[in-house]
Write a structure and sequence with these properties.
The protein is built from 7 helices and 12 strands. It has 254 residues and is α/β, with parallel strands linked by helices. The protein folds into 2 domains: 3-69, Ribosomal Protein L25, Chain P; 77-247, Alpha/beta knot (3-Layer(aba) Sandwich), CATH 3.40.1280.10. The strands form 2 sheets. Strands 6, 7, 8, 9, 10, 11 and 12 form a 7-stranded parallel β-sheet that branches. Strand 3 and strand 4 form a beta hairpin. Helix 2 (89-99) packs parallel to helix 3 and helix 2 packs parallel to helix 6 (225-239). The radius of gyration is 21 Å and the shape is elongated. The two termini are 21 Å apart. Bound molecules: S-adenosylmethionine. S-adenosylmethionine binds at residues 170-172, 194-195, 197-200, 217-219, 221-225, 228.
Length: 254
């Protein structure tokens, strides 16, 4: 069944309209007919199965069959805080981390961050990142759009991590890997820090440890910040989220 993005799937909605390129795609490329079934999702946590009831110029109308929580959302909440990077590197990061099911992504100003945009530029970048995150949801069909946090200072980020179950500062000078936590205390919320191109200062790592963060390694090689953010996301989804067999078995009920 093919899935299409709609702006909202409220519980009381029973009839949906699909317009624009998706409507054209349904009609002229997929050549679907009234009575055919399609999937709809709104990026707010729910999917639904619907049946096409009508075609009108530029619009496809479908009626609800059933609405259910999205099956493409991770069981854990992962926030990735990224030391501000140069130029457009952050754009690609927003797309990739959206695809990896990260709950929230937020830039922060690290000691070694260079070329920080001014308030106006930050506002327009944030708009662009939100657009990228929404487009990524349509492509990867996850249940929720990744939240984009405001650009923060390092101390604001450390405070925002609050009482997350697991707080990790990924640091290339650390030798210890992320320890799979003992099953007695399952991890529900993770907050991870990735440094800027110049890396974290030793002082930043010490302060993060004072806020309950553990430093962890992503292996013996120095990764570019963008690579580290993706590697960290995959590792956390594999260890605690929905990229491990345990979760997949549960999900498919095998
Ligand atoms: N200071 C580094 C150097 O010597 O070239 C550059 C930092 S690296 C480009 C940017 C960020 O990616 C680091 O601050 C860290 O958060 C993360 N990172 C890169 N490699 C890592 C590794 N092997 N283990 C843990 N984190 C790593």
């Amino acid at each position: 069944m093919r899935y299409f993005f709609v702006d909202s799937l409220e519980p009381e909605d029973a009839i949906f309209s699909i317009t624009g390129p998706d409507a054209r795609h349904i009609r002229t490329v997929l050549r679907l007919k009234p009575g055919d079934k399609i999937g709809l999702f709104d990026g707010k946590g729910f999917d639904c199965e619907a049946q096409i009831v009508d075609f009108s110029p530029g619009k496809v109308t479908a009626s609800l069959i059933r609405r259910f929580p999205s099956t493409a959302e991770s069981p854990i909440q992962i926030t990735i805080a990224q030391g501000f990077l140069k130029e457009r590197k952050m754009d690609g990061l927003v797309r990739q981390l959206s695809e990896l099911g990260i709950t929230k992504w937020m830039p922060f100003i690290a000691e070694r961050s260079v070329s920080i945009p001014d308030k106006k530029q930050l506002a327009s970048r944030a708009k662009r990142w939100e657009k990228i995150a929404k487009e990524a949801v349509k492509q990867c069909r996850r249940g929720r759009i990744m939240k984009i946090g405001d650009t923060a200072s390092f101390s604001q980020v450390l405070n925002l991590a609050g009482d997350c179950d697991l707080k990790i500062a990924f640091w290339e000078n650390e030798s210890r890997p992320v320890q799979p936590i003992n099953p007695q205390s399952p991890v529900q919320t993770v907050f991870a820090l990735i440094g800027p191109e110049g890396g974290f200062t030793r002082r930043e790592i010490e302060v993060a440890k004072d806020y309950g963060f553990i430093a962890a390694s992503l292996g013996p090689r120095i990764l570019r910040a963008e690579t580290a953010a993706v590697a960290a996301s995959v590792l956390l989804q594999y260890l605690f989220g929905d990229m491990n067999q345990k979760y997949l078995d549960k999900k498919t009920g095998l």
